[in-house]
Amino acid sequence: MSGESASDGAGSDERRVRALLRHTWHAFFGRFGRLTEAQAKAAAPVARGESAVLCAPTASGKTEALVAPMMERCFGSGTASKEALRLVVVCPTRALCNDFLRRVRRPVEACGWTVDLKTGDSPSFSADAPPQLLVTTPESLDSLLSRQPAALKGIAGIFLDEIHLLDGSPRGDHLLALVWRLRSFRPELQVCCASATAADAERLADEWCGAGGKGARVVRVEGGRDRELQALFEKIIDPFEAARALERLMHDEPGSKTLVFANTRAEVEWLSATLAASLGATKVFAHHGSLAKAERLRAEKGFLRAGSGVCVATMTLELGIDIGDVDRVVLVNPPPNVASFTQRVGRSNRRGGAIRVVCLHSTAFDRMRFEHQIACARAGKLFVEPQVFRPTMLPQQAVSLIFQNPRGWVSAKALHKRLPPSAQKMWSRADCEDVLEVMRAEGYLHADSQGRFVADQPARKDWRHGRIHAHIGDDAEVEVVDETTGRTIGTAHWSGDDVSRADADGEGILLGGKGRKVTRVRDRRVFVEAGAMDEAPSFLSRMGPNYSFALARDLAAFADLGDDTLWLSRTGGHISRHDEWRLEHFFGTLWGQLLAAVLRSHGFRFKRVGAFHATVTRRPRRLPKNLGTPAAIESTVDDYLEKGYKKLAKRLQPGPWKRFVPPDLMRRWVRACMRPEEFAQVVAGFRICDA
């Protein structure tokens, strides 16, 4: 029987890729026994210069699969000049940038290239002597493009790591705009994206990588290591029980390493401080985005080197960062979506064998959500809900373009021309003109003698302080400084009243898993020293995630609640003047609000509307047989959107530039995101029944 064995096939792939990557093979792959499937599949198209989206499981070698052939292409074209920046790598967070640099520095330098970092933590960059490979964030790339655009004139490719973490978010829109601005003067720019959980790769390829009618390659690697997932469930009533459960786990396996994921910074700080008091400060680490770079690195390196211990983190440790082998993962209540669940549990036991996860849940419903996420992860169902490009990007990009232009102006035509194709379809040149006129009316810009827009004093001030490069909302965070050493520990949420008070001495906060006593507050800086905490601090949580309609309805099916029924049940044990009912709708965060608007037209009143349930305070005596025709439902929704678009806009995360966007553009954006025509068709098929 003739044919090629699996080992022969693998060897053939390796020989082919080795011949293709003459300059980069040894540095990137020489120390490994064999290529992964992702590396074998991506090498040829990427080395040829094709843009690509690589969808492959965690720990499949995606970084090497893309960076090595992208570098090889530069060698092959004779453009690997030591005087020019050739490749840019964009990571979602500064922590991931630091980790990416650590992982690629040795092979990149072994190829004779230079590599460096540019983030808010490490802002140094010289356009006169740039590295050939730069690792950065979207905000720092905007700064570079605005302030030192000449440094990017020779760029050959851009690698977007973990693109699913940004796609559809405010920072994702920001990065998408920057990619297409780069293409305005580098039309042949190669764009490669990597993701472990991208569910709609074709859309990503078209939106992020497609250019001039050219398609982008989608490289898929299915499955990965088929590891068993062993889940244990434990109910907790409050944070104290969560801490006790974690203490028991560590005492039962004293030599183990446990990674704990919590959904808010406040939970991370409180749990890590409580565990440090019982397990010892040297065995407990805290990690989240508000910690200063030095504090985050201290936690990462400490947990990496520790023989045993606990690290409590938010999403910052979901992926990428090397923290060594973790024996198990503990989840304190369900993460926001299936992709996040998959990333978190994937950190467990990477040496091989079963994934061990402990799910701490405070309610029976949260346990069901855990079980549903496990089922979705096993089936590969992520329920991604793409979002329309935000009009709030128009003013931010306008200002960035003004300072990129040596002549210091922007026009509606120039702004519109540099938008991504999807944004150009949504927002016209006239829309760009309207945004610029609002910025002029607000005194942020002014018009020159030729009617072009230039920066006024407020814009120039924001540029000097680096505030124009971000599309992240202001959560009133202040810098926290150690009184003794002067070292910045991180940032914390602090109200304006707290910041302005001079008598804040003695108040306490938690940061870095340690209790801190406030000594003074000066110029939006909170100075602290070590101190015991009498009670847990109060943190301002960020707005919760939006649960998609598809994810919510799949959870309803998982709970066997029917495909087309909204269930209504009385809460409490007896009838009174203050009756309330619980509506089981499972329409998700945004469509849940639209459903409530439709039900109000039928006589319902609500106290609260969530992603899965709503609290009803008034209902009609007779429930309607149906909720109306699609046309009638859409008309009701349009009336609601006309008046209530501002409330929904907050849920859609417009970002800090919304003050420059005319109301009409915001209404159109909210309507496009809410998809009322599709909603009306769906709702027309539902009925409402008493449980």
Structural overview:
There is one protein chain. The N terminus is likely disordered. The protein has five domains: 215 residues, Rossmann fold (3-Layer(aba) Sandwich), CATH 3.40.50; 151 residues, Rossmann fold (3-Layer(aba) Sandwich), CATH 3.40.50; 69 residues, Arc Repressor Mutant, subunit A (Orthogonal Bundle), CATH 1.10.10; 54 residues, no CATH class; 142 residues, no CATH class. The chain is an alpha/beta fold and 691 residues long. Helix 12 links the parallel strand 12 and strand 13. 40% of the residues lie in helices and 18% in strands. Keywords: ATP-binding, Helicase, Hydrolase, Nucleotide-binding.
List keywords for this structure.
single chain, globular, 691 residues, disordered N terminus, 5 domains, Rossmann fold, alpha/beta, Arc Repressor Mutant, subunit A
Q: Quick recap of the structure?
A:
The protein is of the alpha/beta class.
Topology, number of strands: 25
Low-confidence stretches: 1-9, 496-505, 536-543
Helix percent reads 40-55%
The biggest beta sheet is recorded as:
7 strands, parallel
CATH class of the largest domain: Alpha Beta
Structure class: alpha/beta
| Mean pLDDT score | 86
Q: Termini, distance in Å?
A: 65 Å
The name CATH uses for the topology of the largest domain is Rossmann fold
Query: So, CATH architecture of the largest domain?
Result: 3-Layer(aba) Sandwich
Whole-angstrom Rg? 27 Å
Question: How many structural domains can be distinguished in the coordinates?
Answer: 5
Classified in CATH, the superfamily of the largest domain is P-loop containing nucleotide triphosphate hydrolases
The neighbouring-strand order within the major sheet is 3-4-2-5-6-1-7
Q: How many helices does DSSP assign?
A: 24
Strand percentage: 15-25%
What is the overall silhouette? Answer: globular
Keywords: ATP-binding, Helicase, Hydrolase, Nucleotide-binding
Domain Helicase ATP-binding: 43-205
Domain Helicase C-terminal: 245-400
InterPro entries: ATP-dep_Helicase (IPR052511), DEAD/DEAH_box_helicase_dom (IPR011545), Helicase_ATP-bd (IPR014001), Helicase_C-like (IPR001650), P-loop_NTPase (IPR027417)
